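in:
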């Protein structure tokens, strides 16, 4: 990096976010670490500052709280050193959208949808006029396979994937790179936090968090818009993208498609 740059990482106190913090500090970034648990963030910041000599700031925020979320948006707007946003904080329901209390579903949407959208928007507004910057959004393979897990969680991740692809189309030409990362099952606390036993998963489908983040960063280095670390053969994914893009010019028409024409019409 020619100049010292800063990465702001949400959900940096544990799991994927804490691992991004480690890897990005070692790549030479200063960091702003965001999550609720101040003592965990401070311990990580102390360790990484000691090991890497980077400047590591802690910004405690509950991203489901609109006022606290606004403080993070302001940091993105006001700190010109921030060149990378890792929109990582997220949660999974204990139960499903069909069984969980409404308050839990609202919290899921606040953290997995509203927060990353407003933070990506704040980053886009800051980065695009500078003609540089990177937005990494942590989605999930469940964006592509909602039948495998809770529909509510999967839908939030489909939202993040669509947001990333649309934003990449909108601001990619202005020098801002947008990447969606789609992890499969990864060994972190998210499972226990949502009442699930990660050790009950078959070992062959569970990725270690260091491997996931290293692969996601390799995808970023390759300039990918969508990175799917567990997908070995990406032929099907590439074909799906080609088919999806080929559909685009066919999706708005004055005439109703023949199969929907009623005899009365
Ligand atoms: N692990 C997987 O299998 C997997 C698979 C696909 C996608 N993902 C996605 O990866 C991302 C990271 O998850 P993870 O697996 O690393 O989970 P994790 O270990 O549970 O970490 C979640 C992080 O988000 C923070 N967080 C939770 N609620 C928050 C809130 N209200 N405000 C601010 N920060 C909050 C947590 O910190 P505090 O508690 O300190 O706030 C923690 O740092 C999520 O978006 C998740 O959906 C995970």
């Amino acid at each position: 990096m020619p100049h010292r740059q800063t990465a702001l990482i949400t959900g940096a106190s544990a799991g994927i976010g804490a691992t991004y913090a480690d890897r990005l500090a070692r790549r030479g970034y200063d960091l702003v670490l965001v999550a609720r648990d101040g003592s965990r963030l401070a311990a990580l910041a102390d360790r990484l500052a000691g090991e890497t000599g980077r400047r590591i700031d802690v910004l405690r925020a509950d991203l489901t709280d609109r006022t606290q979320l606004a403080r993070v948006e302001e940091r993105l707007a006001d700190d010109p050193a921030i060149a990378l946003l890792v929109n990582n904080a997220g949660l999974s329901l204990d139960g499903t959208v069909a069984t969980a209390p409404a308050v839990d579903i609202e919290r899921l949407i606040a953290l997995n949808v509203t927060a990353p959208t407003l933070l990506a928007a704040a980053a886009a507004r800051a980065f695009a006029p500078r003609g540089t910057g990177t937005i990494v959004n942590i989605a999930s393979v469940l964006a592509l396979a909602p039948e495998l897990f809770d529909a509510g969680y999967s839908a939030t991740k489909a939202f993040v994937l669509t947001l990333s692809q649309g934003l990449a189309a909108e601001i990619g030409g202005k020098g801002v790179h947008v990447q969606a990362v789609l992890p499969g099952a990864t060994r972190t606390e998210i499972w226990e936090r949502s009442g699930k036993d990660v050790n009950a998963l078959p070992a062959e489908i569970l990725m270690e968090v260091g491997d996931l983040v290293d692969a996601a960063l390799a995808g970023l280095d390759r300039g990918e818009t969508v990175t799917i670390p567990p997908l070995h053969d990406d032929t099907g994914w590439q074909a799906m993208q080609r088919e999806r893009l080929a559909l685009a010019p066919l999706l708005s028409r004055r005439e109703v498609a023949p199969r929907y024409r009623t005899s009365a019409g």
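note: The first strand starts at residue 6 and ends at 10.
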